[in-house]
Each structure stands twice: as structure tokens, then as C-alpha cells.
Amino acid sequence: MDKQELLKKLDRLKEPKILVIGDFGIDEMVFGTTQRISREAPVLILEHSKTKIILGTASNAAHNISALNCGKAAAIGVFGDDYYGGVLLKALQDKNIDTSYMVMDKERKTTTKTRISGSCSQSITQQIVRIDRQTTDPLSPKTEALAIENIKKAVPLFDGIILSDYHLGFLTENIVKTAIDEAKKHNKIIVADVQKNFDKYTGASAITPNQPDCEKYSGYFFKDEKTLKDAGCALVQKLNLDRVLLTRGEKGMALFEKKGANVEFFEVEAFNRKEVFDVTGAGDTVVAAFTLALCAGCSGYEAMYIGNLAASIVIRFFGCHSVSIEDLKSELENLKGEEIYEIS
Question: How do 243-247 and 206-207 pair as beta strands?
């Protein structure tokens, strides 16, 4: 398949509607300048210059979806009855993400990571301290019931579902089971971005773990292609998945795809190994692009390729970053050779 054919398929990413369910939060970036030390304590005094709100955790996955499919994204998560709850909702809405299914819980904090950075005329900006506001306890029965009600309402209206698990308590066993059961009931693709507790996602369409987390789950290192293949194939069978997309950092990605009674193996090399500034949020970008591609009718290999392409862009930026269809097209055009891949 050549570049021109894949370029046409990239336009299809604008069509599917995607529902993101998970741990939503924001990154608050506070910047200031300093020229002196406080008399009260040996600390810098910063004069505030600006505050920037960035969508992090599951919010970043939803942001990447919205940037790619022109706002056909919705969120189901929890926020607190606090100042940052309003900030989170507004930040999502500003990126054309539907927040009507979000649930407020007065007993929980809105997940917020505040990073305070300072600089002076003789230095670059540096982070000084980070403050985390979050509740990691499982949801209360009341909040869980409201979330499950919203999941049952929303799933039939979307083409695909992403479960974004940052282990902050929202994705309970009941919520995950409900989401997977509803997706199967309505013939929807459901992809889970997981780091641990793999068994909880049994029956999903796909999961997208990274290699270190997969190695921890499987209990051994992938020292060669055989151990990699054995672990991936076993994971597909054990968890009753259609696919496992394994992200491998500088080694690229590996895809394990169920074909009848067998599991097929594909891989693709990382496209960008020289301009890596920050891998923060790259996993969210991968699951967003991969899920959209599957919902748009791309093959598993094509979806992996598109996810790899998207990741190669976002790692050039500091902090969470989103990509557009035009970004993907430009990156694809710059790849060498007319034939862009061969199925291994």
C-alpha cells in the first residue's frame, strides 16, 4: 500500500464519534519571574506572569480525539464540587468535548496537578514544585450508579469507546464491565489504555499497554522476538481480546491480532528516534489515533501505523500535545519512499 492510499484513509478519521471513559484531570502550569529570596524563609519569591491549563490524564486522550475528528468526542468521568471542577469542564468544552455525561461527586477532588515554574533574566524556566490534588479511592456506590447510567445512555450513540485508566478510582470493576458489555451489545469497538490490572479488561476489543507494563503482567522480559510473540499471543487468548497493541518506545510497536483460532503478529519501527523531547501523553495519542482508525474501517496494521505516526509527532513537544489530520498527512508525506510499509 502506498502513501496516496493511506493519505486518503487519514481523512476517514474525522468520521467516527468516540466516547472516552476514565480518570479526567488537568495540569495547571503556573509561571513567574524572580529576582530575590524571601525574608520569611529561604524560598524564591515569584512574580506571577501567567497560568496555563493543559488537559492531562484521560482528558488528553479526549483532546486528541477531538483534534482529529473535529469535536466528535464526549467524556464520562468524575469531578469535584470545587474551583478546579469548573476549570476542568471549561477546558474540555473549549476543545469541543461534550461534558454532559460527566458526574460531580462532592466528596472527591477534581484531579489537578499544579506545576510552579520560575525564571530570572539569567536562567531558563525551571520547575520548582508540583502540587497534586486528587482522590484515588474507588467511587462511592451513588456516583458509580450515576456513571453506569450515563454509560448505558451514551454507548449506543458512539462508534467507539476508549477506557483511559490512570488508577484514580473511576474505572471500577462494575464500570469497566458495564462499558465492555454495552459495547458488545451495541457492536461497538472498545479499546482500553491500561498500565496494570489487565484482567479487569477481559473481553475488550483491544488494549494498548507499553512493554514494561506488559512484562510485569506476564512475569518475564521480552528478550527476543520469540518471548515477545509468546507473551502477546498468550495475552490475546487469555483476556479474550481481538487485538493487543504493544508500544515499545524506540523499538516501535507490535500488534497481536486474533484471526480465527490463531493470533497473527505484526510490527512497525519507530519513525522518529532523533527528536524526542518528552514522551508525556504519547500513550493517550496512540490510543486515540488507533481507536479512530479502527472505527474508520482501517485494518489493525493500518491503525497501528497511524498510531505510530501520531506518536512520532507528539514526542517532539514538551508536555501533553495533540495532533490534527493535517499533522499526520504532513508527517506521512515526509517519510521516505513511495511504499510506506510491508506487512511482516
Answer: parallel
Residue-wise pLDDT tens digits, 53-106: 999 999 999 999 999 999 999 999 999 999 999 999 999 999 999 999 999 999
Catalytic residue among 81, 213, 284, 327: 284
122 burial via Cβ count (<10 Å: 0-12, 13-18, 19+)? exposed
Query: Does residue 284 carry a catalytic annotation?
Result: yes
Which residue positions in the chain have pLDDT lower than 70?
1-2, 272-281, 316-321, 336-344
- For the CA atoms of the chain, what is the radius of gyration? 21
Which residues, at least 6 apart from 168, have a Cβ–Cβ distance to it below 8 Å?
A: 23, 25, 57, 111, 134, 135, 136
Residue 343 buriedness (CB in 10 A; 0-12 / 13-18 / 19+): exposed
Cα(55)–Cα(63) distance, integer angstroms: 7
Q: Do 213 and 194 touch, CB atoms closer than 8 A?
A: yes
Assign 3-class secondary structure to the chain. Answer: CEHHHHHHHHHHHHCCCEEEEECEEEEEEEEEECCCECCCCCCECCEEEEEEEEEEEHHHHHHHHHHHHCCCEEEECEECCCHHHHHHHHHHHHCCEECCCCEECCCCCCEEEEEEEEECCCCCCEEEEEEEECCCCCCCHHHHHHHHHHHHHHHHHCCEEEEECCCCCCCCHHHHHHHHHHHHHCCCEEEEECCCCHHHHCCCCEECCEHHHHHHHHCCCCCCHHHHHHHHHHHHHHCCCCEEEEECHHHCEEEEEEECCEEEEEEECCCCCCCCCCCCCHHHHHHHHHHHHHHCCCCHHHHHHHHHHHHHHHCCCCCCCCCCHHHHHHHHHHCCCCECCCCC
Length reported for the chain? 344
